[in-house]
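I'd like us to work through together how a protein chain folds, taking it slowly. To get us started, please write out a protein record for me. Label the sequence line and the structure token line clearly, so we can match residues to local backbone shapes. Once you have written the record down, we can walk along the chain together.
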Amino acid sequence: MTTLVVCMRRKPGLSREDFARYWQGQHGPLLAQCTDFTRHLRRYTQNLVVNSQSPVASLFGTTGEFDGVAVLEFHSEAAMTLAFAEPRYLADVQPDEPNFVDVENCVSFITETKEIVGVDGSLFSLAGKTAVVTGGAKGVGRMISTTLAQAGVRVIIVSRDQEQGADFAASLPHGATFVAQDLMTMDGVKAATAEIAELVPQLHILVNNSGVFSAGPIGEATADQWDREMGLNLRTPFFLAQSLLPNLRAAATDDDPARIVNIGSIGALWGKSSNGAYGYGASKAAIHQLTKMMASDLTAEGITVNAIAPGFFPSDMTDGFFAAAPGLKDAMIAGIPARRLGTAEDIGGAVVFLCSRAGAYVSGSVLPVEGALWSA
């Protein structure tokens, strides 16, 4: 990691209050939206000098000449060099700097960080990472996208529902991006891969969430339904991960692997037919097995592969499921030891764990998130 510290003087004629307002309220968000720059960062903090005349401040040589300190932590020295050469930074961010700062009289220097004392707040940190969430605008995928965005991740949502997906992506912080592709087909997978690779040469997290569900009596199952579920629930996650391996490898470091998280199902853990969801259950059981097989090959390359098996969460699918059978929702909740459906914090927190430093040594696992419905 390379840390750049910039001691900042405000532009002549600008009050301290106006400097603070512009630097933090306008320039900070502008830089945060410049994803070509921020993908090279681990963290960026603004430190406003509150009282430069205090006796304590003078102990560190602060005599009123600096109004703020910016600390930028880059993934490496090479990443820092690349960041300041990014076309979007040069076109959008750099021209803004003379609006509030005396550029010629600032002081910058590179430091070597050595932590001596402190609470490890980075254990679950995902700030500055990039993630792709397929089917990330609805149901469980929407919960995951929201949680990742709130954790400081740049989220790329892939979905075929262009209007809903674009509106949702625009509502998320940190410049969420929407990629409109139908992952049901291999042409859609290839097109999505090409678009993602152009957006983010380095991809830290891939969440394979897209899925399709059907259920009914065994005699009414059709080959078309079966093929749709095996295609989107099983084939797509494998070939999307395969195609994005160069981007995942580029993001991996010795102490921070890239992550693939496949969304399976509690329906793949128990032997019940779940009201005849044969294709769905079989495809999700296969994704659990595929997760373990991929982990056996990719963990050594710095890419962990895990699956989450959610229980019952609020979604369009479960809402329709419950609406078709009055009283089913209450009966289902009564059968869950946790006595409730899952929430965004439950599924999102599981993804954060697996994708943060806290989960870096976990690979090849299937994590049930289901309120003990299956496991108790």
Q: What stands out?
A: The chain has a mean pLDDT of 89. The domain at 2-111 is CATH 3.30.70.100 (Alpha-Beta Plaits).
